[in-house]
Amino acid sequence: MDKSDAYTFDMNDTVLEFQTTSFTTEKGSILHSGVYNRETAAMLAAGAFIILLGFFFASSLSLSVSKSAGVLVLFILSFLFFRTFVFPEAVLRVIIDRKNNIMSIISRAAFQSRKLEFPLSDIEDMREDCMEIVPENPDEVSVVKKIALQHGSVIPGFGETAVRYTVSFELRNAGGLPIFSSTDVAAAGDVMEKFKNYIER
User: How many domains does one find in the chain?
Assistant: First the structure.
């Protein structure tokens, strides 16, 4: 198995399986991506859960050091639960099955899953592209930076033009289908090379 922080490859003579959490190329919302990430959402959900429990048990519990420590432990466990199961990273899997002559592309996120299948003969080419993502709303950037400074934090690179390198399949009757996106040109090149070598051998 070939593994990096952004993707994994597992392959043998008949099956290649590729998995990554780095495949989106949309610009998305500056406000959302800058402030409300998955960790923040999980923390807010865990906090709301603890507050809700407090309403139910406030009359029967008295405050003490041990109970405060218990609440802290419960908050941490709740955060881990929400981050892992309710707000997980979206995952893309590409499976090339030579034996059955099929390529499957499966995307999974919280509460949703999508699967596409194509015959291997539909693969016309693979392409590596470079794209620039320019912030469209300077006012949003300014608001987010002010909020971050008020909380004593700085978001590295926020509001700057981002350069991403993408790897896509060119499919007959389906056009381009991106499967990987990264700020690291070497990572995109490695993904591209491994797929092409496997398909062409």
Answer: 2
